[in-house]
Amino acid sequence: TGMFTFDPGFLATASCESKITFIDGDAGQLYYRGYPIEQLAEKSDYLETCYLLMYGELPNTEQRKEFETTITRHTMVHDQITRFFNGFRRDAHPMAMMVGVVGALSAFYQDSLDIANPEHRKVAMYRLISKIPTIAAMCFRYSIGAPFMYPKNNLSYSANFMHMMFATPCEDYEPNPILVRALDRILILHADHEQNASTSTVRLAGSSGANPFACIAAGIACLWGPAHGGANEAVLKMLDEIGDESNIEEFIQGVKDKRYRLMGFGHRVYKNLDPRASIMRETCYEVLKELGLENDPKLKLAMRLEKIALEDQYFVERKLYPNVDFYSGIVLKALGIPVSMFTVIFALARTVGWISHWNEMISDPQQKIGRPRQLYTGEQRRDYVGMDQR
Ligand code: CMC
């Protein structure tokens, strides 16, 4: 291929060095800063995981308290942002609003845009982690025509998000701790995943020196697609389309004929079970038990589909296993979160990963603008032809 290595889809190209997350795809292992994801999902919580991803170490008691106070202090958004929402159609997709509103944060928080200044970078990171749940919940409330709920800062990160999603001004709202824990787990499992498409997008956008809010908006845009963060939403749509267990066989045949893909299956890096999927599967059963939904027809359909696919030659040969999104969609649905919010919640969770990668890149003195090359396959030089001769 001449001067350049031709590697579409980056199947064999490392785009950077990183100390944040390690995936062993063949073994089905995932580590944040060296800690196995299973241990974090069981013993840590999302906010502590954020600290770990950002700073590289688990916080001690004092650091944890200070971090929590700081994040809590930034949860409100400027009141003008609430009015910014009014420009959207009321039936706008929440992801469409997320991309716009998060990008617009750069217009509101101009005192944290100087990326050469570590203090500005830190405040921008805190603001993003704090405000993303507030904005995500606002997207939902706006889409159903409900008033926005203020953040409640004595609640945990995930409980506060549930509060902003589901509380009403006229009633007391107590988030169910089992469901809060399940949401927190979803956030931990989605917090980072090294150089996936959206994280690479954030790095590439950031490599030009663009401000962090704009870079995160770019990441959200990339995450939106069904091959990436849109997969959990696509899983639920697929289950709706299949409708009944008796249609599974016909559906699988369509997958084999390559008419469509089995959503929530397969992964670029994991060619073995996605460790996040095993944890999510367990959480899925916990939540359904708590809510008395064990006999829910959609869940039964999902479990049957999973079993059939795991035993089918087509999927076995290609090493296609369920990924995290196969189960997270079902859990989110059970938590009462509408399907259109699924990718928004993924974006919420991944913000810390994106911003940690962005900061790692910006802090590197060797950092250069990302500028891939290409193999040109178009026309050779030719002369302009006037309109009358075409
Ligand atoms: N259903 C059916 N066949 C599949 C699937 C699937 N979900 N995924 C891959 N294949 C087949 C594909 O057709 C190809 O077969 P063949 O060798 O006969 O041409 C082979 O497996 C390899 O596929 P590929 O497209 O080269 O693999 P990739 O590494 O480029 O794709 C993927 C990875 C995640 C985009 C893909 O597996 C997929 O589209 N999955 C469904 C969407 C999904 O669940 N995405 C969530 C990923 S996890 C969360 C996240 O990271 O956002």
From TrEMBL:
<keyword id="KW-0812">Transmembrane</keyword>
<protein>
    <recommendedName>
        <fullName>Citrate synthase</fullName>
    </recommendedName>
</protein>
<comment type="pathway">
    <text>Carbohydrate metabolism; tricarboxylic acid cycle; isocitrate from oxaloacetate: step 1/2.</text>
</comment>
<dbReference type="InterPro" id="IPR036969">
    <property type="entry name" value="Citrate_synthase_sf"/>
</dbReference>
<dbReference type="InterPro" id="IPR002020">
    <property type="entry name" value="Citrate_synthase"/>
</dbReference>
<dbReference type="InterPro" id="IPR019810">
    <property type="entry name" value="Citrate_synthase_AS"/>
</dbReference>
<keyword id="KW-0816">Tricarboxylic acid cycle</keyword>
<comment type="similarity">
    <text>Belongs to the citrate synthase family.</text>
</comment>
<dbReference type="GO" id="GO:0036440">
    <property type="term" value="F:citrate synthase activity"/>
</dbReference>
<dbReference type="InterPro" id="IPR024176">
    <property type="entry name" value="Citrate_synthase_bac-typ"/>
</dbReference>
<dbReference type="InterPro" id="IPR010953">
    <property type="entry name" value="Citrate_synthase_typ-I"/>
</dbReference>
<keyword id="KW-0012">Acyltransferase</keyword>
<keyword id="KW-0808">Transferase</keyword>
<keyword id="KW-1133">Transmembrane helix</keyword>
<dbReference type="InterPro" id="IPR016143">
    <property type="entry name" value="Citrate_synth-like_sm_a-sub"/>
</dbReference>
<dbReference type="InterPro" id="IPR016142">
    <property type="entry name" value="Citrate_synth-like_lrg_a-sub"/>
</dbReference>
<keyword id="KW-0472">Membrane</keyword>
<dbReference type="Pfam" id="PF00285">
    <property type="entry name" value="Citrate_synt"/>
</dbReference>
<feature type="transmembrane region" description="Helical">
    <location>
        <begin position="326"/>
        <end position="349"/>
    </location>
</feature>
